[in-house]
Design brief:
about 600 residues, mainly alpha, Serine Threonine Protein Phosphatase 5, Tetratricopeptide repeat, 30 helices, about 65% helix
């Protein structure tokens, strides 16, 4: 018969090799031979705890504690099972008793810190980690957890210093390197982060999360090819790494290849179907390429993940509030958003697969018109809100989103042109007005075009638009008022554009009469026939005044430049112009 010492070693060997059933049987045999063997009960408790049998493990640890009341490990084992069961007060008490018996045992301070953290006491946890590091500077887990708690507290710079110290004292603890690089990226220390990630890969070249974060860092530098290669390497090492698929999707968003982006977002969704941001990013790309029903299906999936929050938002901004809003654009946007969420919740939509999403928008059941109407209203009111506060870049983005949903709405084109003009982007504003004019005749669009062209000193074309308004029932009084308002509002920045001499007061029915009255050469005058019907601006032949290309007023140029107005949503509320968008996400 083997001795108890031999059996204990055999049980420990089997447990370390994963042979829990065999180790359990050996412990039972030891206890049958020597009922007072505390170590056998401790091993028995380890096996039961690993299997989630916490009550049974507690009984075994308690027996070990009764047999060896002066051994700190007996207190530590009891503390551990209490902690894992969520009984934090009891766990803290037993850890402190173990520390009283062995105050220089660094691991006890570390595990007490973990318990404080799980209980929500971040300061208590940080203090324990500091003691653990002081007792054992090679305890990598303590550096890592202390840095994470400092970051939670908002002290990211101190967290970075702690990890830098841990990197020196624990040169093979790869998690320290990965987290250090991640936090450096948060502080825009991109070069330093890349160096740290590469150092981590020299320790372990098979770590997928490090490749993912390295890809994020390359993306932040604008090195998209290197970023894509890093993400693909991460996926090759871990095919179910959802964040890498998502980051690839965002890179393709930045390159304006939204169909490719959708493919990667849907792969991420297949792996993590409860991730709100994956649906949101996928929906944004679907919206941009015109797959509106697919976009609505994505948004519906996103809000279904957290319905309580959405329901609370809907209740806060219910329809009754609209009676009290007046002209408050922000509140109108919030109400429209609540109506959109409510309508979307009531819709029965099904997300199609990636192949369908790239070919057509018929892979989803028909979306009710109310859903689109409320979403368009949300974007329009948000654009108006930002326009009022001078946040013109953001306002432009929302107006563009609104136009993707309702591309026939003239007022949105006017609002978009207004924002562009206020930024001094007169050519862009003119292009938007021309696009609106192709959709339908609008005197407001023509008035705005005339005003913008006046600011550029292009009197002939401006006069043509003013005349067109008058021919179709516009009033000289309103024309003068609108034109003067645009010139004198102070919100249009003309930059280097020279200020032309202002024409005399009054508006003539015929442009030629105005030119003659002011002794202006009429050799370059192009007569515009009087017509009784509404004509689209393309019939005015405005592109060839003067016999040369009209810049952004030239139809081919206009179509090409207008395509460049596209913006890209980076997710998480971050948006930039496509040319500047290099941001993706990393993960700890």
């Amino acid at each position: 018969m083997s001795s108890v010492e031999e059996l204990l070693k055999l049980a420990q060997d089997n447990l370390s090799q994963g042979n829990q059933d065999r180790a359990f049987a050996i412990c039972r045999e030891i206890i049958s031979q020597q009922p007072n063997c505390a170590i056998a009960y401790q091993l028995l408790g380890n096996i039961q705890e690993d299997n989630g049998q916490f009550i049974a493990a507690m009984g075994a640890y308690t027996k070990a504690f009764e047999l060896a009341p002066n051994q700190p490990i007996s207190y530590a084992y009891l503390a551990q099972v209490y902690r894992n069961m969520g009984w934090f007060d009891e766990a803290i008490s037993f850890y402190q008793q173990a520390i009283d018996l062995s105050p220089n045992w660094a691991d006890l301070h570390y595990h007490l810190g973990m318990t404080w953290h799980w209980q929500g006491n971040i300061e208590g946890a940080i203090g324990c980690y500091q003691k653990a590091i002081a007792l054992n500077p090679k305890l990598g887990e303590a550096y890592l957890d202390m840095a994470l708690r400092l970051n939670e507290r908002g002290d990211i710079n101190t967290a970075i210093k702690v990890l830098q110290e841990g990197r020196i004292n624990c040169p093979n603890f790869k998690e320290i390197f990965n987290t250090l690089g991640y936090l450096q990226l948060q502080q825009n220390q991109i070069d330093e982060a890349i160096a740290i990630f590469q150092e981590a890969l020299s320790i372990d070249p098979t770590e997928p999360l490090v490749y993912n974060n390295l890809g994020w860092a390359f993306a932040r530098q604008g090195k998209l090819s290197e970023a894509i290669a890093a993400y693909h390497k991460a996926i090759s090492l871990k095919p179910d790494l959802a964040i890498a698929y998502s980051n690839l999707g965002k890179l393709w968003q930045h390159k304006n290849n939204h169909r490719q982006a959708i493919t990667y977002f849907q792969k991420a969704i297949a792996i993590e179907p409860d991730n709100i941001m994956f649906y949101s990013d996928c929906g944004n790309s679907c919206l941009i390429i015109g797959c509106l029903s697919q976009a609505m299906a994505c948004f519906q999936k996103a809000i279904a993940i957290d319905p309580k929050f959405v329901q609370g938002y809907i209740q806060r901004f219910n329809r009754d509030v609209i009676l009290e809003t007046g002209s408050d654009e922000l509140l109108q946007a919030q109400i429209a958003c609540a109506q959109f969420l409510e309508a979307l919740q009531k819709s029965d939509l099904e997300l199609g697969n990636s192949e369908n999403s790239q070919e057509s928008d018929h892979s989803v059941t028909e979306v009710p018109d109310a859903v689109y109407n409320y979403l368009e209203a949300t974007y329009s009111h948000l654009g108006n809100t930002l326009n009022q506060y001078g946040e013109w870049d953001a306002a432009i983005r929302y107006y563009q989103r609104a136009l993707r949903i309702k591309p026939q709405k003239i007022q949105t084109y006017l609002d978009l042109a207004s924002c562009l003009a206020k930024q001094g982007r007169l050519q862009g504003a003119i292009t938007v007005c021309h696009t609106a004019g192709v959709i339908e005749y609008s005197p407001e669009v023509y008035w705005l075009l005339g005003s913008l062209l006046e600011l550029q000193g292009r009197w002939e074309v401006a006069i043509a638009y003013y005349s067109k308004v008058l021919q179709n029932g516009g009033t000289a009084e309103k024309l003068t008022t609108v034109s003067q308002e645009w010139r004198d509002s102070g919100t249009i920045s003309t930059g280097e554009i020279p200020r032309p001499q202002q024409p005399p007061q009054g508006v003539y029915q015929k442009t030629q009469a105005w030119l003659q009255a002011n002794n202006i050469d009429t050799s370059h005058y192009i007569p515009i026939p009087t017509v009784g019907q509404q004509l689209p601006p393309t019939e005015l032949d405005l592109d060839n005044v003067g016999g040369e290309c009209g810049g952004l007023d030239c139809s081919p140029c206009r179509e090409r430049i207008f395509a460049g107005f596209e913006v890209s949503n980076l997710g998480y509320g971050i948006e930039r112009r496509v040319a500047d968008a290099q941001d993706c996400r990393g993960s700890l």
